[in-house]
C-alpha cells in the first residue's frame, strides 16, 4: 500500500492534514490525552465548521488503514 499523509475529519467530508501527535498521561489523574497538532485547520477557516455536519466522532486515516473514535471531549487551542 502506498504511503499516504495521515488525515483526520472533524466534519464529514472535510479532511485535515495532521502535523504531529503527542500522547500524554495526567500525573495526578492518570487520564490519557492525545494532542493533535495542525499547521492549518480547515474546519475553523472561513467558518466551514458551521456549514458541514459534525460526525460525532473523529475519523483517522493513514497508510495502515482507518479508525473512527468517539472522543470524551475536544478542545481547540489557537495561537
Automatic annotation (TrEMBL):
InterPro entries: Psb28_c1_sf, PSII_Psb28_class-1. GO terms for cellular component: photosystem II oxygen evolving complex. Pfam families: Psb28. Keywords: Photosynthesis, Photosystem II. GO terms for biological process: photosynthesis. Belongs to the Psb28 family. This is Photosystem II reaction center Psb28 protein. The gene is psb28.
